[in-house]
Structures are given as structure tokens and as C-alpha cells.
């Protein structure tokens, strides 16, 4: 049986795509639907940046938390040069 570990986090780029989709949906698409009340259309337009910021913060957190640091071989070796 294969015991490969399943990742338990959402990649940062998924949050970024969700932020873009939420902004476009709430800011441009939802207000153009006929039959919605003007109050709901206005609320959707006002919530668009707030929801987008939440997803962008989650994307930044995911990028910071789960990105692997790149090591440079030149920095790992001790040198005789003091500078």
C-alpha cells in the first residue's frame, strides 16, 4: 500500500485565483444580474474589495508559511575572506 502523505494545506496560488474570481464576480458580474435588488447590488460592490483582501492575506500567509527557502551553496561554505 502506498503511504504517500497527502498535503493538508491549500497552495497560495489557489487563494490568489479565488481573490481574483471573487472580485470579478462581486464587483462586475453580480450587479448586472437582473432581478436583484439595488441594495444587494450595492452591497456586493462594497464587499468585493473586502473579500478580495481576505483572500490575498490568506495567499500571502500560505506563500510565507509553506514556501521552501532556496539555499545558495556559496553562502553555506565558510570563506577566509572577512567581507
Structural descriptors:
single chain, 83 residues, mainly alpha, 3 helices, 61% helix, 0% strand
Description:
This protein has 83 residues and is mainly alpha-helical. The chain has a domain of 56 residues. 61% of the residues lie in helices and 0% in strands. The chain contains 3 helices and no strands. The protein is elongated. 4% of the residues are buried.
Instruction: Write down how many β-strands occur, each being a DSSP E stretch of 2 or more residues.
Output: 0
Question: What is the gyration radius calculated from CA atoms?
Answer: 22 Å
Helix/strand structural class: mainly alpha
Shape: elongated
Total number of helices:
3
Helix content: 55-70%
Tell me about the largest β-sheet. Answer: none
SSE ordering: HHH
Overall pLDDT metric: 85
- Identify low-pLDDT runs: none
Whole-Å distance between the termini? 53 Å
List the helices and strands and how they pair.
Elements: H1 12-29, H2 38-66, H3 73-76
Helix pairs in contact: 1-2
Structure at a glance:
This protein has 83 residues and is mostly helical.
